[in-house]
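Continuing the batch. This is chain 6 of the set; chains 1 through 5 are on the previous pages. Same settings as before, nothing changed between runs. Recording input and output for traceability.
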Amino acid sequence: MKSVPSVTTEQMREVDRLMIEEYGIVLLQMMENAGRSLARLAASLTAGTPGRSVLVLAGTGNNGGGGLVAARHLINMGSDVRILLSGPLEELVDVPAQQASILHSMGVELLEAKAMAPEPLQRAFAEADLIIDALIGYSLAGAPRGQAASLIELANASGRPIVSLDVPSGVDAGSGKVYEPSIKATATMTLALPKTGLGGSDVRARLGDLYLADLSVPPSLYRRLGLEVEPLFAEDAVVLLQWVNGGWMSSG
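Output for chain 6:
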């Protein structure tokens, strides 16, 4: 078993900044890594389901962009994928907007949840074999509102398994505060390292199984932040974590 350190949200923002500005590992690469790993995890959790149907709930920020990457990979794997946006399509910018453009070129429709009538919206949840929660990441500021809150409530009420990207939407990854509404996930795939707030008992009840995905952060970058991180991804880009004696451990 390997000990896996946690990082604050401020440290994670610094990791993101250094990756882009000093190591030249741009957001597009990080989002592609995250989305590909999320798709692989989603596919493994629905293995044996013929023609699996996946509903991707995507916010308009970078967390949503990761969900759009996962949608593209799942489509390539043969899944029936529907995408619901929590905000207007025109609110997507930069890399998430690029991912939306790729999906559009593939002939994939991105649906704005607010524009859907209640019946087809509820049917989208009822027909899903799996729901991907890519609504809100570690930049959450207060309780979810508006359409994001409505989608969280629909997901929880659906009874379908839910996989969250980085953190269940509605959970503050830094403080560990659980807002209402918030996703109750079957599994969560967090990125690079667990955030400090994920260790609280209330949060762990929302995570489901916690997986850690490789963002290709160089060990030298972690050392600059005073973190010694063992090679966690020697065998796979996604590893299952366990909470043992007050800390996260990996068997990878």
